[in-house]
Design goal:
Oligomer: single chain
Number of strands: 0
Helix content: over 70%
Distance between the termini: 79 Å
Largest sheet: none
Order of helices and strands: H
Shape: rod-shaped
Radius of gyration: 24 Å
């Protein structure tokens, strides 16, 4: 039983690394999109504030 339990445990270890890599790429893309959208929003807010003040 113990000897059989060894080999099956190996493949799952490879899976998390691949999933982590995919998650990393997805997170990086999402963060990029979020940063771009935030920049746009901030630009809009700043332009509106400048229009109000002037």
């Amino acid at each position: 039983m113990a000897s059989n339990a060894g080999p099956p445990a190996a493949p799952p270890q490879f899976m998390p690394t691949q999933l982590n890599a995919l998650f990393g790429q997805l997170l990086a893309q999402n963060l990029n999109c979020v940063v771009q959208t935030m920049r746009r929003v901030i630009h809009r807010q700043l332009s509106l504030l400048r229009r109000r003040t002037t």
